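hey so i finaly got around to running the thing on Triosephosphate isomerase from Rodentibacter genomosp. 1. pasting the sequence first so u can double check i didnt mess up the copy paste, my clipboard has been acting weird all day
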Amino acid sequence: MARRPLVMGNWKLNGDKSFTKELIENLKSELAGVNGCDVAIAPPVMYLAEAETSLIGSQILLGAQNVDVNVKGAFTGDISTEMLKDFGAKYIIIGHSERRTYHKESDEFIAKKFAALKEAGLVPVLCIGESEAENEAGKTEEVCARQIDSVINALGVEAFNGAVIAYEPIWAIGTGKSATPEQAQSVHAFIRGHIATKSQAVADQVIIQYGGSVNDANAAELFTQPDIDGALVGGASLKAPAFAVIVKAAEAAKN
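ok and heres what it spat out for the 3d tokens, dont ask me to read them lol
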């Protein structure tokens, strides 16, 4: 089956009110003719209101960079699925290596976030990937399988229906080092195959993005690979022309 590619921008801890409005206006004009690729942006949660307003009338979908497992109550500083829905956010990033590393989020905790998002009707964008040491030790597939299985063991393989996986080798995030298209495809094929051992139907439809120093120069080659269904873009998503090149490359490669 043909999977519709998804290119999503993870703005991380960047931007302010005026930057948010200006970048979205520029993205709207740059991406005006695109209809063969889903596009989403995940600004900092502080700016979801500006983003929601600025995106009116556009095809670009809104996302967020994190969510908590609790819906309401005495959880100071946390953000619920219902709050994200209130601002029209749809694609929610969980399990990013920066959250796993700096906030000590475990596979089990991330699986709970996945469950909370599914229950709320939101789309989890589950980030998985290995460190440089794990890569060099030949443990890439083992790490990816463990991170996926934490969700399957808790929720069943059907949880990946309508979900997104972002394979982000940690050694390639923000380093300027990207996996080669062949390296990335090999891991993507493994991920899809791993899910297929539980359900071929779920594996066939799950969107598997690549993330890790994706830019306007390397995107087209990555998207020619059969199991790479788009990208989770960091730094390049903060520049409308560069992000637009990536989106259009996905549209061209997959249609």
